[in-house]
Amino acid sequence: MVIYEPLVATNYEWVNTIHSEDTEVFLQFDGTPRAATWKPIRVRRVRADKRQGFKPSDFPWLGSDALVMRRTAVDALRDILEANGEVLPLSTDDGVELYVLNARVIDALDEANSTLRRIPGTDRIMWIKKPAFFASAIEGIDLFRLPHRGSSTYVSERFVERVKAAGLRGLDFNVVWSG
Question: Which Pfam families does the UniProt record give (predicted)?
């Protein structure tokens, strides 16, 4: 089993929230269904910086904790997405349909075998440099987050293969664990 962390591919578009405080909503995603009360957050497509390209992406980058997708990605991966979370619409001013995944949360982190940093004076995890997982907790799971604030979204080899087979653009994948 191989687990990956999605990363933004070079020269592809990013997204930012129109109101900076809305970014907090994505950090708080914990897999709890939100569709019944969800109000689409307004985002805009942007360049990472002035030198960065602006190629259209099937996964405009907001961060590793919030997987943002165009309809092309949602349609190609719908079975995986719906089995592992909840797809929620975002709002744009330019008419581009964007969605964010409220991914399933699984307490699968093997802290003893992970490299991580804690918030000073607490037991809370601040940053996970190299995760290790309990294989039994993620067996057959294609997409998940950990129950730590701002956790990355982690994906399976099957997810990566489906993205590539569908020709979806804008993500690279970094192997973070195999076991």
Answer: Imm11 (PF07791)
Ranking 56-70, 89-103, 117-131, 160-174 by mean pLDDT, the lowest is 117-131
DSSP state of 55: B
3 state DSSP class of 69:
strand
pTM: 0.93
Task: Please tell me the predicted confidence (pLDDT) of residue 54.
Answer: 79
Distances (CA, A) of 43 to 61, 68, 161: 11, 10, 28
pLDDT at 145: 95
Are the C-beta atoms of residues 113 and 132 closer than 8 Å to each other?
yes
Q: Reduce the DSSP state of residue 165 to 3 states and report it.
A: helix
Alpha helices by DSSP H, listed for the chain, are: 23-27, 71-83, 135-138, 157-165
75 phi-psi bin (left φ>0, alpha ψ -120 to 50, beta other): alpha
Q: What does pLDDT average to over the chain?
A: 93
Asked whether the beta carbons of 5 and 174 are under 8 A apart, the reply is yes
Q: Percentage of residues in the chain with pLDDT exceeding 90?
A: 79
Domain that holds residue 66: 2-178
Q: Which of 117, 118, 111, 144 is nearest to 129 (CA)?
A: 117
Total domains, the chain? 1
Contact 8, 62 (CB under 8 A): no
